[in-house]
């Protein structure tokens, strides 16, 4: 009996150590009031994105939930308005797998919203599921879509500077290795999916780095944020159904709740004084060093140029452009993947959302800043 009690005590003690050192997230204590400011959070209908949007709404921001599913997006907006007491939480349709949908969202947003102070790229996928595309779906959703959306919204970010762009990445970037000769090749099989996911997270880190360089002096700062190990839909979405009941209790014990996962993205969006760290990677609310592949400025610039091509960006749509973007015909030869409008683009338009059919550092870091320790 004594041995059993001792074993239980040791297990509990070990769990407490794991919880406070790996699971529990440090809270973000950034800007208290965001009244008069506007934020866009992609994938904000659930998980980390919803908790991020909730904290922004509680601080008084006007929050746009950019989500693929109209039903879930509208439901999330209703929930957040009720929970935050802030009625300026709205849904707008965005399908990052479709470049046409990204452009439609940008056109609708720029036509209806006079401000954009915070852009948080939270939406992402970890697997292609049963979908088979002629392109790398993981790279499209996790990097190319956010890359294009950032470029199209830059004019509004510039006019509202100081403003911020936050890209939710992952520690998986450490396993990424970009092959520029096969960057947009279709992904088939779980081994390729694991590799493609890590590659897309590395692309997130390199994108934030290069974006900081391209926007130096504009008042826009950019950060890559790792939410930590989070018990979210992304974790269980592609797990076989029979395995989920077994994994849920384990996930509840050793993974962060979505609220905890939202803290580092919120820190990057709200914390004052981190502007000199634009382009860096953050985890647990402090800056972290990244492996050589994630701080390779030549690779970052090469990815930038490749991403412009894959996103179908024209000469006047780079980071330096000050013009409001015009919608591009998705059937034009300049689009790398001409595509029919997907079902997720053909949403009906409720009164609370714009009608999309009608409104269409390097901060060159010669020497990296010292790592923060708190």
Automatic annotation (TrEMBL):
Region (Disordered): 310-374
Family of the protein in this entry: Belongs to the short-chain dehydrogenases/reductases (SDR) family.
GO cellular component term, pick one: extracellular region
Protein name as it appears in the record: Dehydrogenase/reductase SDR family member 13
Comp. bias (Basic and acidic residues): 365-374
CDD domains named among the record's database cross-references: retinol-DH_like_SDR_c_like
InterPro entries: NAD(P)-bd_dom_sf, SDR_fam
Main location, first listed in the record: secreted
Biological source species: Tursiops truncatus (Atlantic bottle-nosed dolphin)
Alphabetical list of Pfam families matching this protein: adh_short
Location(s), subcellular: Secreted
A GO molecular-function descriptor: oxidoreductase activity
This protein's UniProt keywords: NAD, NADP, Oxidoreductase, Secreted, Signal
Function: Putative oxidoreductase.
